[in-house]
Amino acid sequence: MTTLFSKILIANRGEIACRVIRTARRLGIKTVAVYSDADRNALHVEMADEAVHIGAAPSAQSYLLIDRIVDACKKTGAQAVHPGYGFLSEKREFQEALAAAGIAFIGPDAHAIQAMGDKIESKKLAKAAGVSTVPGYLGVIADDSEAVTIARDIGYPVMIKASAGGGGKGMRVAWNDEEAREGFRSAQNEARSSFADDRVFVEKYIQQPRHIEIQVLADGQGTALYLGERECSIQRRHQKVIEEAPSPFLDAATRKAMGEQAVALARAVDYKSAGTVEFIVDAERNFYFLEMNTRLQVEHPVTELVTGLDLVELMIRVAAGEKLTLKQEDIHLHGWAIESRVYAEDPFRNFLPSTGRLTHYRPPSEDPHVRVDTGVYEGGEISMYYDPMIAKLCSWGSTRDAAIARMREALDQYYIRGVSHNIPFLASLMANQRFVEGRLTTNFIAEEYPTGFHASDLPPEEPAVLIAVAAVIHRCLNDRDIQISGKMPGNKVRVRDDWVVVMDGTQHPVHVRPTDGSPQRIGYTVDFEGRHHVVWSDWTLGQPLFRGTVNGAHVCVQVDRVGVGYRLSHSGSQALVKVLTPNAARLDALMPVKAPPDMSKFLLSPMPGLLVSVAVTEGQEVKAGEVLAVVEAMKMENILRAAQDGTVSKVHATPGSSLAVDQKILEFA
Questions:
Q1: Could you tell me what reaction this enzyme catalyses (predicted)?
Q2: Which residues of the chain fall below pLDDT 50?
Q3: CA atoms within 13 A on the CB side of 498
């Protein structure tokens, strides 16, 4: 058997760098991390055996600099580089530079990267090979006027995409000339910023499609396999949110046909390593080649969970010259796996990115049914310079329903504070009946959440569960308080049984009494509106997660102290709760509610980011829908428009300024 590398460098950051390090450790391979100024204290730096600083925080000044990566390999003696995904993972020049330095690239050869990594060239090759492709214009587009002309010829709606794009960046859907012109400019700017390649192409946008991809694996020595499919249709702004394997839509015949076509495409370019062939699939299971990603995919864990294979290990072995011992008949799919991408973003504010320090970070415990791929830790920081992903949360079950149930439990247990996160939205998706039934398209989120995500979109919860848990938590605190030493002799205090739980402004009288149990468990019966709710738990004071049962049903409720009350989180929803004596509850009902300040005359920055441009001046009249400013965050341009007609009275921020969330940009008369 071929000798594996003794040391590899990971030319990436975040969760994927940590993911590669874990497999390398298991194989006995030493690892080298690279890091920018912003990642000096990052988890992947701590996990690696060695670490090399490669530049400033912006990726164009660090992670995208080929010469810095090659120099780091030479300094540390790394024999090979794993590129992860994004950054330089699909750059032919990177593979060539490594080869020239005698360093192995854990991925495909340069000619395959060039042929298939470029979306325009890969479509031309696929079409020449007889692969069904989506109608479109594959030439390089000179300017926005030409983009409009091409879009008209193809027929709206069209998809405008960056040739070197990925991760939803440099991608826009246009339904008319104005959107095509604006979409071309934004896609080109994002492509230039993210990939240093501003080429853009246009293709027909197929409505009601599914996004299904095939994982391929080849050794460059004659063996090429497909490892089943992944359903990636749950997307927001072309960014995948939920992935699963297998697809609830494909039958065996379609799976085989797609797999064989993906392998044929890989063989056409002498592909070596892991890669993914993406398809659009219509309602009749007709499929069309979309693109090939010549790298490891973000969502590869779901394939690993249903096949039992370690794709990173197989990539390393192939790069070291080993021949695959697997045959196609050895590949079997067992059970069902789902991946939820946990992002630092605020789903209640149109998913705006959130940056800052993770004051508390406690992911769910990993076991055969739950996997957490993360690159952050408690006390670490979510930077404005990179993708806002916190983690990839994966669940496995023997059936799809079981995998969904496991995911809902794991989301309840994921405790994140300090930044906003999208767990409420993920919980809503897992409870959505259309999702549970598997009726998916890439328009799913737009159709199910047409006006954005709101608290009303969360799964309906039996309020008695949170009321009972709140009553028990407060009773435990009072039971603890009466045991404090140093009291005056003869001054015996008894904890009352009657309380009023005030939740979201509504008062709920409850009666709480202890239930005999073991020393390791607390038990209480909570009487509420004529019903008994028996609560059991091993919760102790101060723990952020209240795990237990309410009337025999398992629950996990997140608990935060807020002033004299609590913030309880369960199934994605939150409730502010106070537990008061009956007399205090009567007085509480008389307290006035403080109205928030009126900020309607200001344009506020909806996120922390860089103010790219201001399109208006003081004294200028604007119409509803007119562009006011552009803010860049997490490598994405966000266009801010006027909500109504008005006149600009003052400009508070200038282009190039770093903005905090809710910072004033403009003021209207």
A1: propanoyl-CoA + hydrogencarbonate + ATP = (S)-methylmalonyl-CoA + ADP + phosphate + H(+)
A2: none
A3: 6
Catalytic residue among 15, 190, 203, 291: 291
Contact 184, 140 (CB under 8 A): no
| Sign of the alpha-carbon dihedral angle for 502, 504, 505, 507 | negative
**Residue 421 backbone dihedrals phi, psi, to 5 degrees:** -145, 165
Residue 291 bears catalytic tag: yes
Q: What is the dihedral of CA 145, 239, 35, 275, to 10 degrees?
A: -100
| Residue 260: CB atoms within 10 Å | 13
55 contacts 68 by C-beta, under 8 angstroms? yes
Report the distance separating Cα 546 and Cα 521, nearest Å: 12
From the list 238, 244, 226, the residue with the least C-alpha distance to 183 is 238
Check residue 479 and give its pLDDT. 85
For residue range 47-91, what is the model confidence (pLDDT) as tens digits?
A: 999 999 999 999 999 999 999 999 999 999 999 999 999 999 999
The residues with which 161 forms a beta bridge, in sequence order, are 171, 201
Q: How many CB atoms lie within 10 A of CB 294?
A: 29
How many C-beta atoms lie closer than 10 Å to residue 284's C-beta?
6
- Strand, coil or helix: 315: helix
CA pair distance 138, 298, nearest whole angstrom: 26
Q: Are 636 and 385 in contact (CB under 8 A)?
A: no
